[in-house]
Amino acid sequence: MTFKQLNKKYFEPGAQGLMIFGIIALCQPWSFWLHNNGLILTLTGLVSFMITSKIPPEPEVAEDEQEDLV
After folding, report:
1. Are 7 and 55 in contact (CB under 8 A)?
2. DSSP secondary structure, the chain, as one string
3. Could you report the per-residue pLDDT of 14-63, keeping only the tens digit for each?
4. What confidence category does residue 65 fall into, taking pLDDT thresholds of 50, 70 and 90?
5. Alpha-carbon distance 3 to 64, whole Å?
6. How far is CA 30 from CA 26, 40, 45, in A?
7. pTM (2 decimals)?
8. Are 15 and 48 in contact (CB under 8 A)?
9. Stronger pLDDT, 12 or 62, i.e. the higher one
């Protein structure tokens, strides 16, 4: 698995999940630690998403070219 495939499958959704978790951490009333660090979690997820979304996906190979590769 190439880095670009890993990025689209794991890193980009992970960054989105971190942003969502940071927003939830800011809104919850139970854990003071989560509330204090919710903004840091959200900003970390935002910066991570900005970086991972700039990585272009792998170019798709046409079916004719796939047959030539085999």
Report:
1. yes
2. --HHHHIIIIIHHHHHHHHHHHHHHHH-SS-HHHHHHHHHHHHHHHHHHHHHTTSPPPPPPPHHHHHHH-
3. 999 999 999 999 999 999 999 999 999 999 999 999 999 999 988 877 66
4. low
5. 25
6. 10, 18, 22
7. 0.80
8. yes
9. 12
